[in-house]
Design brief:
- The structure is a single chain.
- The chain is mainly β.
- 1% of the residues lie in helices and 40% in strands.
- The protein has one helix at residues 113-116; strands at 46-54, 57-62, 68-72, 76-80, 87-91, 104-109, 118-126, 132-143, 149-159, 171-176, 182-186, 204-208, 230-233, 237-243, 249-254, 260-265, 301-303, 309-314, 327-331, 336-343, 346-354, 359-364, 370-374, 379-386.
- It has an 8-stranded mixed sheet, with no helix packed on it. Strands 1-24-23-22 form a 4-stranded antiparallel sheet, with no helix packed on it. A 4-stranded antiparallel sheet has the order 10-11-12-13, with no helix packed on it.
- The longest helix is centred in the first third of the chain and has 4 residues, at 113-116.
Length: 388
């Protein structure tokens, strides 16, 4: 990836202390125990069963009837009936800017989906003069008896600003919190400086009402403009967000050359990128570590070598009782499933399972099974169940 020089006027950016940075907790400064060795396939406590295959899948979400919606990066939305194995394409999906890391992204349900049938989807869209940016839309899902269907009344409720050149670091992960708000990860599009610029919503975590309007209690609401959308800043490329049982938001992000992160997200906190990182630039230029700048929130876990995290769920089921409350992260370059254990505001990698393929997405099924989507063409959908 080509990098551009860092041009930050530090006096003009918000530098915020946060309770997430706790010197008494070694993991709060990015420290952690040695990475566990990956568990071989014959010693895994689960069986991985192939259920279906998709072309460059990116995200999935379960419907109340147990069927599955899967986004494919080229711009298709698939509906899979798990009972019959039948797959149908949903029409009415917006045109996506496919290329690089861009294309169709995340998909989630409105908290009241059973009543209103509203879904949310993210994707990369074209701008002018060879620019692109992420967008989030909401629409009504209308399925017919066969399992086919369409999106109706689609409306874009949020866009990355500004649109920029390049095809990387969109982020655009979506989640609904216990507060009923819509949370969006907006990565910095490989442009560095916008992550610290409150005139841009790049490199930020965004919090909106379910209709896209601005909550009055956002930390920067009084600043107006895109700053009023922002919950936290100083992020690089966030590809996973999940709320734990206590309502705390955790998010992981890809570091540069080294320094993948898992962060506890705190209201108004600045996570430091690109001023600090536990990795370095791809061209070899060093970036100061988090512990050199304690005013920035430090990660709870860092990975060097990187795992290239993608997809994230905090397990709440009963099928794997020993894992209740654990986080599961898909590993792309590490071709792994990583289990993270939490203890209050602390976290650590507890186990790593070698899956043999790049893992793009992780979800929990209605029965408590774990579901994985591999990355790339002819990618498998895998169902993980306890080994008998």
């Amino acid at each position: 990836m080509t990098r551009t020089p860092l041009l930050l006027a530090l006096g003009l950016v918000p530098i915020l202390a946060t309770s997430a940075c706790n010197a008494a907790d070694p993991t709060a400064n990015g420290a952690q125990a040695a990475t566990p060795a990956a568990t071989p396939a014959d010693q895994r406590p689960f069986t991985a069963t192939e259920v279906s295959r998709f072309d460059q899948p990116w995200a999935m979400t379960f419907l109340p009837d147990g069927s599955l919606l899967v986004t494919e990066k080229r711009g298709k939305l698939q509906h899979l009936d798990l009972a019959s194995g039948q797959k149908h394409e949903i029409t009415g999906v917006p045109k996506v800017a496919y290329g690089g890391q861009g294309g169709f992204g995340d998909i989630i349900l409105h908290p009241d989906f059973a009543r209103n049938h509203v879904i949310y989807l993210s994707y990369a869209e074209e701008g002018t003069l060879d620019t692109r940016g992420a967008a989030v839309a909401r629409a009504t899902l209308a399925l017919d008896a066969s399992g086919a269907g369409q999106l109706k009344d689609l409306k874009v409720i949020w866009r990355q600003s500004p649109k920029v050149s390049g095809e990387g670091h969109y982020g655009h992960r979506l989640a609904f919190g216990p507060d009923g708000k819509l949370w969006i990860s907006s990565s910095e599009r490989q442009k560095f400086d916008p992550a610290q610029d409150m005139g841009s919503n790049l490199g930020k975590i965004i919090r909106l009402n379910d209709d896209g309007s601005l909550p009055a209690d956002n930390p920067f609401a009084s600043q107006g403009g895109v700053a009023a959308q922002v919950w936290s800043l100083g992020h690089r490329n966030i590809l996973g967000m999940a709320f734990d049982a206590n309502g705390k938001l955790w998010a992981h992000e890809m570091g540069p050359a080294g320094g993948d992160e898992l962060n506890l997200i705190v209201r108004g906190a600045n996570y430091g990128y690109p001023i600090v990182s536990n990795g370095d630039h791809y061209d070899g230029r060093p970036i100061p570590d988090h512990d050199t700048r304690p005013e920035f929130a430090a990660p709870n876990v860092t990975w060097t070598p990187v795992i290239s995290p993608a997809g994230f769920v905090i397990y709440s089921g009963s099928l794997f009782p020993q894992w209740k409350g654990s986080g599961f992260i898909g590993g792309l370059s590490s071709t792994s499933l990583v289990r993270v254990a939490f203890d209050g505001d602390s976290a650590r990698e507890a186990e790593r399972f070698n899956m043999g393929e790049r893992i793009r997405e992780v979800e929990q099924g209605p029965d408590g099974a774990l579901w994985l989507l591999e990355d790339g063409s002819k990618a498998r959908l895998l169902k993980l169940t306890p080994k008998t």
